[in-house]
Amino acid sequence: MRPGTEEELSAIVAGAKGPLRIVGGGTRTVGRPVAGAEMDVSGIAGIRLYEPGALTLVAAAGTPLAEVEAALATEGQRLAFEPADWRGLIGTSGEPTLGGMVAANVSGPRRVQAGACRDALLGVRFVDGTGALVKNGGRVMKNVTGYDLVKLMAGAWGTLGVLTEVSLKVLPAPESVAVLVLDGLGEADALGAMTAALGSPYDVTGAAHGAQGTLIRIEGFAQSVAYRSERLAALLARFGAVRVEAVAETCRALWRGVRDVEAFHAVPGDVWRLSVRPSEAPGMVARAGARQALYDWGGGLVWLLMPEGEDLRARLGAFAGHATLIRASDETRRRIAPFQPEPPALAAISAGLRARFDPKGILNPGLMG
Predict the structure, then answer these.
(1) Residues 6 or more apart from 44 whose CB is under 8 A from it?
(2) Phi and psi (nearest 5°) for 23?
(3) H or E segment at 215?
(4) Nearest one of 209, 201, 155 to 179, comparing CA atoms
(5) pLDDT in tens, 90-143
(6) Which helix (H) or strand (E) holds 349?
(7) Residues 240-293: pLDDT tens digits?
(8) Separation of alpha carbons 155 and 353, rounded Å
(9) Which one of 118, 143, 169, 238 has the lowest number of neighbouring Cβ atoms within 10 Å?
(10) Cα torsion 279, 267, 269, 255: sign
């Protein structure tokens, strides 16, 4: 099934007698495998409104993300939250879509400064599990009354409704970028350097540590970037030698490696995504016994390459945070809950929301459970 309009989508959902597996670009096969009829919503596509002066873009959910980013680039603008491309990480093909990005709340390295995907959402349109078309939010900030369904849909992975249109706040692209690189730091020193950088007044837009070294990013007007880079390099000198990369393509390549977790591409093993307090990250990595680790968000997000079929949560025990299984075989994703199990009170709220928005239980059933 491949509806081309909201009306066709509504009719399909309203008449569905069994589970539906919602597919956009098919690039983010995360969660438990869903047994159901495939519904491809990539046919509901196209940029509906783009007002560069108002920093606002409205597009159908099936619009390829590359098309949106190309349109923004022509006006010197971008999606500030830096959405990742997980095709190389998970081993999928297809084209990432705007709706898939929102449904997964995909947020890259710049989240530490610009916020998450849900923070840029202004409004959504979606079809709920009864086939009803729902609209919430609008085209400007601070316009929400009643339930904030806009943020609820971000990260729901299509289990509460099928997105048909999204409105986003966009921001100007920077004139210049520089990356401060510290090579050879141990995890403790790397965490110290990232913490110092993020706590400085120099408006850092990325802080990561992995195979490429410890990376700190600064963006903005050229003169400001040069000044802040110099001052921040002096601040971080106590952790080791600092070199500054200022070639735009080199900087983009370094952060693309972090954003898309390129170090784990085509490398055997399961991939987990661990969200913890930065101060606890090195200890958690040591307990995990991971084959490889990539720290992002100043240590608040850690990507772990683990042996296939191993339950990371069982190895870690109780901890403050959550672990998400991003890449694994279908058998492993059926046996181990890919998403962090919710505490009973929160699970009850989630069940209530699903019952309200999908009373027939047909939208990606079991994907998050």
Answers:
(1) 3, 4, 5, 6, 9, 60, 61, 62, 164
(2) -130, 130
(3) strand 213-220
(4) 209
(5) 999 999 999 999 999 999 999 999 999 999 999 999 999 999 999 887 654 444
(6) helix 344-357
(7) 999 999 999 999 999 999 999 999 999 999 999 999 999 999 999 999 999 999
(8) 14
(9) 238
(10) positive
Write the CA distances from 317 to 106, 224, 280, 288, 310, integer angstroms. Answer: 27, 45, 14, 10, 13
The pTM (predicted TM-score) of the whole model is: 0.93
Residue with the two structure tokens 């560069």: 52
Which of 255, 252, 98, 72 lies closest to 170 in space, CA to CA?
72
Intra-chain end-to-end CA distance of the chain, in Å? 25
DSSP 311-342: -HHHHH-S-SEEEEEEE--HHHHHHS-SSPPP
What values do phi and psi take at 259, rounded to 5? Answer: -55, -45
In this model, does residue 215 exceed pLDDT 70? yes
Residue 117 dihedral angles phi and psi, to the nearest 5°? -55, -45
Would you say 202 and 232 are in contact if contact means Cβ atoms under 8 Å apart? Answer: yes
Quote the tokens at residue 164: 């048909």
Q: Which domains does the chain have, with CATH numbers?
A: 6-172 (3.30.465.10), 176-259 (3.30.70.2860), 264-335 (3.30.70)
Residue type, 338: P
Q: 235 Cβ partners below 8 Å, 6+ apart?
A: 196, 197, 200
What number of other Cβ atoms are within 10 A of residue 122's Cβ?
Answer: 21
Q: What is the DSSP letter of 119?
A: H
pLDDT in tens, 6-30: 999 999 999 998 999 999 988 999 9
Three-state DSSP at 296 gives: strand
CA-CA distance, 90 to 103, in Å (whole number)?
Answer: 17
Contact 60, 164 (CB under 8 A): yes
What's the rounded mean pLDDT across residues 61-72? 97
Residue 148: pLDDT band (50, 70, 90) is confident
What are 61's two structure tokens? 């959910």
